[in-house]
Amino acid sequence: MAKAKKPASSPPTAAAPPPPPPGVASPAQASARKRAMPKPHADLDVTTCKLHKADVMHRVHQEKFAADQFNPMAVGNARFSPISDVDGKVIPTIYAATTFDGAAMETVFHDVPFEPGFKPVDKAKLKHQSHSTIQVTSDLLLADLGTVWLRKLGVAKTELIESDKEQYPDTRKWAEAIHAQRKDIQGLSWMSRQDDRSRAVVLFGDRIEAGVLQQTGASRSLLGDPVAHEEILALARSIGVTIVDGT
């Protein structure tokens, strides 16, 4: 009696690649970030939100600036500043966040890499840096750059909010376009890339009257104030950073 033939075995299937570690872009995300930044079109459909009267925002800023002082300079390379109006005049801006951690992550810890192991940050990075809180004394209308609303604008979060410094000249064009097309908008609001527990804002100084932002309490030096310094050290520990004297 003939023996039954064994069915041919299927070739081995390649295992799916493991997901990237938390905070590390997947290949699809990395590819999206490398795409050319779309240009803002001439009729942006902007969704708005508000900073409400009595809201308190946190700032980490150079001590040479007052807590409520807009930066009027045309130098730097931030996501949404420096920017200019349609006449080429620099728009003064001020950055803030809804929490202390958010403000610190968007400034002194902005460039901390998403990787395990020893991550040193030079103590000098905290020098001449202050933490301040400002209170809004009247409602402010902001463009909401949340993920859902970006679909109407025609730009992805990976492009506008999560892109790297090389793309900042292009992200600033979006801020300028929103400022130019919507004369009523006084700033931008988005979920912080560096701390997604916090929202970040940039406010347009040419559309906010003097006195609308009021400092609450005294500014605190990140090095000289013991409470502020301990808060910075606690945040550093939570993200695996070691503050060192020189790197």
Would you give an account of this structure?
The chain has 247 residues and is an alpha+beta fold. The chain has a domain at 42-113 and 131-217. It is 21% helix and 25% strand. The chain is built from 6 helices and 12 strands. It has a 5-stranded mixed beta sheet with strand order 1-8-9-10-5. It has a 3-stranded antiparallel beta sheet with strand order 2-7-11. The protein has a two-stranded antiparallel sheet with strand order 3-4. A hairpin with a 5-residue loop joins strand 3 (83-84) and strand 4. The termini are far apart. The model has no long low-confidence stretch (mean pLDDT 90).
Give a brief description.
This protein is of the alpha+beta class. The chain has helices spanning 27-34, 100-105, 147-153, 157-160, 168-181, 226-238; strands at 48-51, 56-62, 83-84, 90-91, 93-97, 119-122, 129-136, 140-144, 187-191, 199-204, 213-221, 241-244.
Question: Could you give a short account of the major beta sheet?
Answer: 5 strands, mixed
Q: How much of the polypeptide forms β-strand, as a percent range?
A: 15-25%
Radius of gyration: 23 Å
Strand order of the largest sheet: 1-8-9-10-5
Q: What is the global morphology? A: globular
SSE order: HEEEEEHEEEHHHEEEHE
Task: Return the structural class.
Answer: alpha+beta
Helix fraction, binned, reads 10-25%
Q: How would you state the average pLDDT, rounded?
A: 90
Helix segment count? 6
Low-confidence stretches: none
Number of strands: 12
From the N-terminal CA to the C-terminal CA, the straight-line distance is 80 Å
